[in-house]
Write a structure and sequence with these properties.
With 284 residues, the protein is an alpha/beta fold. It has nine helices and ten strands. Helices cover 33% and strands 15% of the residues. Helix 2 packs across helix 3 and helix 7 packs across helix 8.
Amino acid sequence: MGRAIEGLASKPYVFTKCSLLEGPGRRVVHNLKRDSVLREAEASLKRLRVDAIDLYQIHWPNPEADIEEGWAALAELKEQGLVRHIGVSNFDVAQMRRISSIAPVETLQPPYSLINRGAEAGILPYAEDHGIGVIVYSPMGSGLLTGKMTRDRIDGLPDDDWRKNDPDFTEPRLTRHLELVGRLTSVARRYGTTPGAVGVAWTLRNRRPAAPLSACAAPIRSPRSSPRPGWSSPTPTSARSRTAEGTHHDNHRSMNAETTTETHRPGRPRSEKARTAILRATAE
């Protein structure tokens, strides 16, 4: 990623996370100790060949007893100018309240989709009330809302694929979800787009989330991914992004994916400005 963005005249936003490391036997290790967070940030800066990371987030609130220490480390990095904005992923309201006395939470990244609307109960209202920009992940339900996930495909998933035994991919929920995909497909056909695109657009109809974050292995080149006239997508189409979430392993034993998005840089947005910047920066 660092080689790809080095020397660009118009620099992209650079988002990444900390707290997930690769331990012995390639097991995931959670670490929110100050020294570990600072080492991860230093390693990311070197890999990305940038002077500062635009958005740095804690990946998971684990170990929960250390979230204050980890958040204080992010605040320290921001104070030093090594990161421009700081946020959290997968935190609940109580956890955000605990760390907000150390430094304001600028962004939140929860899971949110048509099949996972748990964030509506408390997390999204809290973010709106406190001017926190929201970047939702898995807006296509980990592939379930793409229209490509059939019963046969689910049955054929490798045994080590977590989706194979996940409640959303098994009965009784699976039947309901596939019926929903059928309805999304009908809407998509009318507008010359895909069920997944409709699912992503739905997340943006909620006034609280700023933008969806979708993982993809390669650029989508199918003509069907370009809607015909009449389709009104809530996301800007001028920005181009390539994102990955939680699947990257690098030489520094970090499991965080470096994320870049091509767009123009604003100043140092906060509150509503932060929401607008994130919306532009993470357009999929």
